[in-house]
Amino acid sequence: MNKKYILLFFLLIGLVDAGYLTFAHFSKAQLYCSNSGIINCQAVTTSKLSTVIGIPIALLGLIWFAVAIMAFVAFPKLLAPWQYLGILGMVYSISGMAILGEICEYCSLLDAMLLGSAIMVLVFGIGVKGKLNERS
Fold first, then answer.
1. Which domains does the chain have, with CATH numbers?
2. Side-chain half-sphere of 26: how many Cα atoms within 13 Å?
3. Average pLDDT, whole number, for the chain?
């Protein structure tokens, strides 16, 4: 399978996941996730660490994935620098869950999609030369 399609898969799954988390945040909907023990999405997504300067992390993730998809389609050279912001978000998310001592499955999925896209772009060079050629 072509690596660019793997990257697109990571970006689309991340967009859908971030969209679901953003919807749940603003609608106050209960997430379909365990809320007991170490897996506790509700505790993670409603904690003080789930926002940065009042902006939900889920919304920042939604914006990040939307911009990444636009870069994938129209401005591939921007994929590499954009990944560093995604890595920063992933580190914040993982650190927050570590501090809380609880894990959100949906947040972890987002972190995995951020890591996967970073590997595809920064390690395999997808989009680095400004085009998404067929050999990538």
1. 3-123 (1.20.1440.130)
2. 10
3. 93
